[in-house]
Amino acid sequence: MSALSGKVQTVLGAIEPDQLGRTMTHEHLTMTFECCYFSPAPGDETVAQAPIQMKNLFWLKQNPYSSHENLLLLQETNAVREELHEYRKAGGGTIVENTTQGIARDLPCLKQLAKDTGVHIIGGAGYYVDATHSEATRKMTVEKLTDIIISEVLHGADGTEIRCGVIGEIGCSWPITDSEKKVLQATAHAQTELGCPVIIHPGRNPGAPAEIVRLLQEAGGDISKTVMSHLDRTIFDNGELLEFAKMGSYLEYDLFGTEMLNYAYNLEVDMPSDSQRVKALAFLVQEGYEDNLVIAHDIHTKNRLTKYGGHGYSHILKNIVPKMLGRGINQTQVDKILIDNPKRWLTFK
Ligand SMILES: CCC(=O)NCCS(=O)(=O)O
């Protein structure tokens, strides 16, 4: 049995699972999303290049990926620190910080934020999508990738002694690439060795989550300790959703606060509203999946911060919980989604 068994590992060290409290299972506190810059539509070049300002906020909400400045969340540590104080005041306890290799993971910054604010912060091991893999990463064997991921959990990452407490978010594209498949295999092997939580970013296709779960299963992964992220922009049909839910992973709705007409990365997708997200949660609760649900905001661009008129890290606690209670999800079920399910997922076996 490992020393981490029965514990949760934060950037400040291992803690008892009961200390976590209300937990957002998918956020970013510092990162860059430059890998995923999306050219503005013809005619929008001027607004896209302008500094972020009040009169452009609606455009930015609709086109968050077409402004270089907006993609640099790593420039906003002071604003994020203030927001974490607010998050504590709103009753928040823990944030799982999903930034992995490729999008400027900064564990020393996370450690300082945890010290400054008292919020428990859990760092992520492993790799984001193929577009961010280095040539060296692409050439690595599954065994080498596994060793690196295990070391990021047991000894520390990025040349520090700060240890990750979860593997992921592990990035997958659609269609999935060879390098991403190797990282998934390494993830499953590392999970087998460590008994740790895993979180996945699926490609943008309704078939992606199930394909990824099958790949993890074939490599020996523990699906009951795995979160499938971003279901709100990935699976829309209730029948397909239930088919996927049967596979046994945690089901994550993590884009709360994000409402936009055109989703740049897949124009086929109608990004749901928060009301539709709550409806999806209520449907899954009704179908018996209340022990599998987790939620978050996945803040990964500046416009989502309250400093820029966004929803911030406390939106779920302040606005979405009352809505859930008004739409047939009771307090016990809310507590499962915000406290019990994250706690079970994050505790090392
Ligand atoms: C790194 C942040 C991230 O991957 N967020 C998901 C964005 S989206 O794929 O849901 O658009």
From TrEMBL:
Name the record gives this protein: N-acetyltaurine hydrolase
UniProt cofactor(s): a divalent metal cation
Family annotation (Pfam families): PTE
PANTHER family, A to Z: PHOSPHOTRIESTERASE-RELATED (PTHR10819), PHOSPHOTRIESTERASE-RELATED PROTEIN (PTHR10819:SF3)
Record-linked PROSITE patterns: PHOSPHOTRIESTERASE_2
Cofactor binding: number and manner: Binds 2 divalent metal cations per subunit.
Binding site for a divalent metal cation 1: 26, 28, 169, 298
Keywords for the protein's UniProt record, in alphabetical order: Hydrolase, Metal-binding
List of residues binding a divalent metal cation 2: 169, 201, 230
Homology family: Belongs to the metallo-dependent hydrolases superfamily. Phosphotriesterase family.
MF (Gene Ontology): hydrolase activity; zinc ion binding
Organism listed in the record: Salvelinus namaycush (Lake trout)
Keyword Metal-binding: yes
UniProt catalytic activity: N-acetyl-L-methionine + H2O = L-methionine + acetate; N-acetyl-L-leucine + H2O = L-leucine + acetate; N-acetyltaurine + H2O = taurine + acetate; N-propanoyltaurine + H2O = propanoate + taurine
